[in-house]
Backbone:
């Protein structure tokens, strides 16, 4: 399944407040917060869009930015406990809608791989 293509801007003031209030802020906040949120869920999912903003190892989870239309929020959520047959952990939050992360394919990455396959000389 392809990844949802929804994106939005992170609210700057609220993002800074979340960083300052975090019990386990990222070591390099500017690298953790790009200014934009891109949904990481599978295309056609139910409910809010979701983007992982930074890990909170102390809580065994992460800070996620969830949004839908004009409504948005930051939430500390635990990791999804489900593991793939090969042992890979799902990289989404617990009780996320739709498919697990190993079933979600980034359409940009897939387009790049397709272009590499079609034009190997360009990508030497």
Residues:
């Amino acid at each position: 399944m392809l990844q949802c293509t929804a994106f939005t801007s992170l609210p700057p003031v609220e993002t800074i407040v979340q960083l300052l209030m975090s019990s386990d802020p990222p070591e390099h906040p500017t690298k953790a917060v790009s200014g934009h949120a891109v949904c990481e869920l599978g295309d056609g999912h139910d409910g809010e869009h979701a983007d992982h903003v930074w890990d909170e190892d102390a809580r065994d989870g992460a800070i996620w930015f969830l949004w839908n239309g004009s409504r948005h929020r930051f939430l500390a959520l635990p990791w999804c406990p489900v593991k793939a047959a090969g042992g890979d952990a799902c990289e989404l939050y617990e009780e996320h809608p739709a498919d697990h992360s190993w079933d979600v394919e980034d359409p940009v990455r897939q387009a790049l791989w397709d272009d590499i396959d079609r034009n190997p000389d360009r990508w030497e």
Remarks:
- Strands lie at 7-9, 36-38, 49-56, 61-68, 71-78.
- The chain has a mean pLDDT of 90.
- Residues 7-123 form one domain.
